[in-house]
């Protein structure tokens, strides 16, 4: 239950940045990953103080305030989405996308891409919020089955 609540709060955090069009400052080499890390960090810092509800929380009957004792994310250790995938704990890998889960792609052999899943549109399509290399925040629809431009590595949760 706690992980679902934090995932819902992560979607709300990304949507806030998308709506505000905030210009974000990042020193990270991979700006899309830096954007995701910023959103996760905000959830880690504020989740114990915020009350919220969302489509997943409402549908599953979960509401309330997150416990400050819940673990903080380990995704800050990586500077590249592909390295993050290799470092992530096995219990953080998800079989299917959930709102708030992170989606990781192979763009090339040495380059990855990452986004925050907003919702599953159908069996093969997700809506994501992503940072771009030119430091913009976009909401995009991505096929998780089409491998023409990027191949899906998988889905993870930032928290255990």
What's the short story on this structure?
The protein is of the alpha+beta class and 160 residues long. It has helices at residues 2-20, 31-46, 55-60, 81-87; strands at 51-52, 64-65, 93-94, 102-108, 111-122, 125-131, 137-143, 151-156.
How would you summarize the topology of this molecule?
Blueprint: H1 2-20, H2 31-46, E1 51-52, H3 55-60, E2 64-65, H4 81-87, E3 93-94, E4 102-108, E5 111-122, E6 125-131, E7 137-143, E8 151-156
Antiparallel strand pairs: 1-2, 3-8, 4-5, 4-8, 5-6, 6-7
Describe the structure.
The structure is a single chain. The chain has one domain (2-156): endopeptidase fold (from Nostoc punctiforme). Helices cover 30% and strands 28% of the residues. The protein is built from four helices and eight strands, in the order H-H-E-H-E-H-E-E-E-E-E-E. The protein has a six-stranded antiparallel β-sheet. A two-stranded antiparallel sheet has the order 1-2. The protein is globular and about 40 Å long. The model is unreliable at 50-71 (pLDDT under 50).
Number of helices: 4
Choose one word for the global shape: globular
**What strand order characterises the main sheet?**
3-8-4-5-6-7
Report on the biggest sheet. 6 strands, antiparallel
């Amino acid at each position: 239950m706690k992980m679902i609540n934090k995932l819902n709060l992560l979607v709300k955090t990304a949507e806030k940045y998308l709506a505000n069009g905030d210009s974000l400052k990042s020193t990270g080499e991979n700006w899309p990953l830096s954007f995701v890390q910023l959103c996760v960090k905000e959830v880690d810092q504020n989740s114990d103080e915020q009350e919220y509800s969302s489509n997943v929380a409402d549908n599953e009957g979960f509401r309330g305030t997150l416990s400050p004792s819940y673990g903080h994310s380990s995704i800050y250790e990586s500077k590249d989405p592909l390295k993050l995938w290799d470092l992530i704990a096995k219990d953080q890998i998800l079989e299917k996308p959930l709102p708030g889960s992170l989606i990781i792609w192979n763009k090339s052999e040495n380059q990855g891409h990452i986004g925050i899943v907003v919702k599953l549109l159908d069996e093969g399509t997700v809506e994501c919020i992503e940072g771009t290399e030119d430091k913009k925040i976009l909401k995009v629809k991505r096929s998780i089955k089409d491998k023409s431009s990027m191949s899906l590595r998988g889905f993870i949760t930032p928290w255990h």
